[in-house]
Specification:
mainly beta, 7-stranded antiparallel β-sheet, 44% strand, globular
């Protein structure tokens, strides 16, 4: 459980327990990208969802420690790449700090100029709509400008601390 809060509020949840329990919720994996004058940049982001159809909005939550998100925020436009099964290494590469994350990663520009990584399941071009405090993360809401998908590809999933696959019942 948690320890009592000093002000009589509900107990404080142990972060390790929260990570373990919420790890049971399978999520897709995305890489948020943009092209700058100095070359393309991007970061891995698990916290992503569709938010609204009217207006068309998505949401994602970069860590406050992200060194890439402030640069993307300043640009105001970016692309969310939904990774496909087998792109574990891409996810891990874009989760690192400091390295050239695009080394060996093929991409093409989206209609708005942001990198669409090769072989992704889907991509969503967006522009910053709003930001909210999300504790140790920032909750970003973006207006969708354009998007596309490859229905023949299966998504990369993250579950209980590792990458997983969808299992088909007809297989």
């Amino acid at each position: 459980m948690g320890r009592p809060a000093p002000d009589g509020a509900p107990p404080i949840v142990d972060p390790r327990l929260m990570r373990e329990v919420l790890g049971h919720f399978a999520s897709g994996v995305t890489v948020v990208t943009a092209d700058t004058e100095d070359g393309p940049i991007g970061f891995t982001c698990q916290s992503f969802s569709s938010l609204s159809l009217d207006p068309p909005l998505i949401a994602f939550a970069p860590a406050r420690t992200s060194q890439t998100w402030p640069r993307l925020r300043d640009m105001g436009r970016f692309c969310v790449n939904v990774l496909a099964e087998g792109q574990d290494a891409v996810s891990q590469n874009f989760a690192r700090s400091g390295a050239d994350k695009f080394a060996g990663v093929a991409w093409t520009p989206s209609p708005h100029g942001s990198p669409v990584l090769d072989d992704v399941v889907a991509w969503i071009d967006g522009e910053l709509w709003a930001e909210y405090d999300g504790g140790d993360h920032t909750i970003v809401v973006a207006r969708v400008l354009d998007l596309g998908a490859h229905p023949d590809r299966r998504p990369l999933l993250f579950h209980r601390g590792s990458y997983g696959l969808l299992h088909r019942s007809d297989a």
